[in-house]
Structure formats: structure tokens, C-alpha cells
Design a protein that fits this description.
- There is one protein chain.
- With about 600 residues, the protein is of the alpha+beta class.
- It contains eleven helices and 32 strands.
- It folds into three domains: about 280 residues, Glycosidases (TIM Barrel), CATH 3.20.20.80; about 110 residues, Jelly Rolls, CATH 2.60.120.260; about 100 residues, Jelly Rolls (Sandwich).
- Helix content is about 20%, strand content about 30%.
- The strands form seven sheets. The chain has an eight-stranded parallel barrel with strand order 4-5-6-7-8-9-10-11, surrounded by five helices. Strands 16-25-17-22-19-20 form a six-stranded antiparallel β-sheet, with no helix packed on it. Strands 15-26-31-28-29 form a five-stranded antiparallel β-sheet, with no helix packed on it.
- The longest helix has 18 residues.
Length: about 600
Amino acid sequence: MKYLIILLTLVCITASVFPQQKHEFALGKEVFLLDEKPFQIISGEIHPARIPAEYWRHRIKMIKAMGCNTVAAYIFWNYHEVKQGEFDFKTGNRNIAEFIRICQQEGMWVLLRPGPYVCAEWDFGGLPAYLLKIPDIRIRCMDPRYMTAVTRYLKQLAKETVPLQCIKGGPILMVQVENEYGSYGNDREYMKALQQLLKNSGFNVPLYTADGPTPYMLEAGSLPDAAIGLDSGGDEKDFEQARKHNPNVPAFSSETYPGWLTHWGEKWARPDTGRLKKEVEYLLKNNKSFNFYVIHGGTNFGFTAGANAFSAVAYQPDITSYDYDAPINENGEPTAKYFMLRNLIAAYTKEPLPEIPQPVKTIEIPSFSLQYAGSIWDHLPKGIYSPQPQTMEAYDQNQGLIVYKTRLIGHKSGKLKIWEPHDYALVYLNGKFIDTVFRDGGKWEVDLPKSEVKEPVLEILVEGMGHINFAQFMIDRKGITDRVTLNGMTLMNWETFLLPMDEKFIASLKLEKTDNINKKSCQFFKGEFTLEEKGDTFFDMSRYSKGVLYVNGHNLGRFWNIGPQQRLYCPSSFLKKGKNEVIVFDLHQELAESLIGHSTMY
């Protein structure tokens, strides 16, 4: 033990005497300069929050083996400040500094994309949901309440990442300011304020912005002395737009798309590979820097998936998988697209590419049974009174479920309308399920039948399915956002029950297998399986309806039988040798079905 302590002390002394080599990264007029020499960024983007920390090094090695020299990474503010003022940059896959150090150990540079807004098909675009507790909050502008929170976040992030800039011996070459702001707003003072805040926080490497290659987006979203990122820059016309806007800084394709996102109810996105090859050939041939968004997507574990909405009544929640049809698939394996791009990049680079790492082990889990283990109605917490429905955020709840309960006085049947259900509601009358209401499309009415009860009991259970992460409808609170009417009469005096459905909440429940089935729906099912060896697997949820899967306490995310996703990815690190526990929560399923684990997504 004494010799180990001496050895560790010598290592620490050596590290302090011989620090990592410092580098200068600068903006030329048309190209980037690394130590005063032209440098072409060939980057692959991954998101640490979407990948178990145990697999970070493997994925970074995969990126390098495809021919990239840089890793781009979004940092999701709300993943590190779940509760206001409480930051976590140390545990599990929240340890951003460690992620960046691994990049450097593997010989990779880093593009840091800290937001505060990032989009990324991530819940609320990375902004923390506690902001939505403020009734009149305005985001992505100089609203002082928003900027106070932004300042707190960026200063905290700076403590972790400023020492890892290339000028200090780390791998960070550039830092992005906001994200695609020209697609959202035109507050130039806001962009300048963020730029200054980053500099004041200690970020002294070059900054860049990222916007679509159109005049109005570049005018609203770029900064005079920041590099211009193009989302995407795939041909000479795109780069010409950047030159017209600012001929004094280099432009690059900050998001070259090898794949695309998928919403629930759609077919899997499978973009044309021919278009991708043509774009990458142009970028390589003309020595343009670029970043693959994304080279590996990972998974929206828990309730981290976001949503799109391009009108007031259109709502498109994202699936749990963030496979993205990327070159490296969800569980880290190379695809045909990976090999095409690797061969293409190899033809333009001087150094031979590293060997492709061995894939992570995958396993099949034989069919195992589950048993009914109670209903959510058996686990309602103490109710909270309010004259009118309040949103989840008003009660400091991000997502999950919320139940609203009232008695019907006056009108007792007819047209019930929820203004507005965010996002998926189940309506009950006197304990009997009546109908569902999905936010998408604006059809928020239900026919309530007549009842013999003097004061019928109305209950509305609402599931949040992801805060909108892009464009003009991002102020997106969950639950019932305004009121409920019956034949035009506003219903008053509600009792509210909070059901966050996160890992801590599920762990607090005493779910016991039982034959006494509550027919009211919203059921829990529980099962076990035994493993002699661990590996990644995909649980097949096709025999269930709509809900959430928990394995050994880990929330794997949402499932929904409308597809296209039917299997949920479970990394080896979530499993145990020996006995493993599975809990399925399903909004509609009445009877337990067996589960099976597959070695592939499809």
C-alpha cells in the first residue's frame, strides 16, 4: 500500500511538472488555424447524456476509426441542473470533464456546444423546466429572469471545462454560442450578451454560431467575430451565403446530417445515402471543415426525449431511441453507412485509419413472465386543492403523470373539453374509463355519458410526453394548461395528484404481485429474469400498449404500440449477473404479457 501511495504521488508530481502541451487555435479568413497551420475539422457528434459513461471511450474510438479528428458534444443544461441551483457535473454520464479528458486521451479534439439552448430533440431543447414555473417567462432573449439562470449555468459549466481548452493543454478547440438562433429570434443583444458571458467565464478559444445557410438566419443568428457554422453546409451555394454575410471568418458545416430524427407514429427515418455521399465528397474535396450530426445518437433514457410542434395544435413527440439512422447505431455497432464514410474519408487523409474497435457484447434474454402488481390508482399521493387546474411545472414536476379530480355540479354529461391537454389524457367518470385525448390535432373533446350519481366524479390523468424543443411553441407546460369545460361551463374546484414516475418515485412504491386486478387501467406489471452473463439487449415491448419500462430501477424510456419503435435498448451496465427485476407501467394494458430481450433493435 505504501508503494502504491508513493507511485500515485509521483504521477501527480509528474503531471504538474509536465502538463499537456498547449495549442493555439485561431480563425483565419477562410480556414481554421491550429498552431498557425491550416487545420480541417472532421468531427463526429455524440452526446454524453445519451450514452452510458462506461461506453464513452468505445464510442470515441469508433469515431476516430471512421476518420474523424474531432468530437462535437452538446451539453444539456437541464441534465445537470434538474432542480434550480443544484448542479451535478460529477456522477455517471454527467461528468463532462471526464468525457472531454477521454477524448484527449484518444487523440481527439473537441467542439463544445453548451447552449444554453441546444435543440437536439432533447426535452425543452436543454432548458430546465423550472423556468416554466414563471407564468410570463420569456426564453432565448434578455428576460432578466432567464438570463440570471443562464449566467448561473454557464459559470458552473465553465468551472468544469475552461481548464480543458487547447490554450491550457486540453482538447477544446471552439465553443458554440447558443444554437440556430436565426431560426427562432432576432435579439442581437442577447447573442452578444451570451458571447460576452462565455468570455467573462474564461472561454478564450474561438467561438462559433450555427444557423441554416439563409440570409435572414445568418443575419439574426451570427456574430461578427465568431466562425460561421452552417446547418448544413453541403455545397458551394451554402458557403457563398456565409461569405456574403461575413467574408472575414471561416465557415464550416456544423451539422452534416447522415441520418434524421423519428417521431412516434411515423416510419423510421432513412435519409438518402447518395445525397450524404455527395455532400461529404464536396466537403473533403474542397478542404471544408464539417461535423457529422450525429455520428452516433444513443438513447433518450427516462423522460429526456423532446418533441416538435410547427403549429399551435400539431404536436410530434420523439421516440425513445436516438439511433437517428446514424453511422454508428444505438448500441455502438458500425453500419453500412459507417463503412461508406470511412472509405470516403480514408481516400482524402494521409494517415492510415485506426482499426475499428470490437463491438460491445449483445445478448438474447429468453421469454420470461410478468404478473400484475397493482394500479397507479392504488398509489395516489395526498391531493392538492386548486380552484383551476395547474400545470406540472407549477408544482415543480417536470414530466410523468398528473391526475385532476373534481365533482360535476350543474352539467353532468355532454361535451367535455380540455383546454389544452399536454400531452396525452385519459378521462374517467365515476371510476370508469371513458376515452383518451391526444394533444396532436386539436381534437380535445370527449362525450361524457349520463350518470345516476348525484355528483359524478370526473378524473383526468395526463401524461407529459416531452417538452417542445424547437421553433416558436417552446413555452410548453405539461398537464392541463388552462381549464376544463362541460357544455361550455368551466369546471371548478380540483384535487390534484402528482405522479412524477421517475426512478426515485418508482422505488418508493411497494409493488406486490397480486391477483386482485384493478380494472381502472394504468397498471403495473412486475417480473424477474436471471443472467449468467451480461450484455446489451433490446426489450421487445410489442405485446404492451403505452407506458414506461424500468429495469433494475433504471428508466429505459417510453414505449407506444403505434410505433415505429417496438424495442427499448438496455445497456449491459443496467443489468446484473443473477436476478434482475423488470417493472412495466402501462396506461391501457389490462393483462400481463411476457417479455423477451433481443440482440438487435429490429
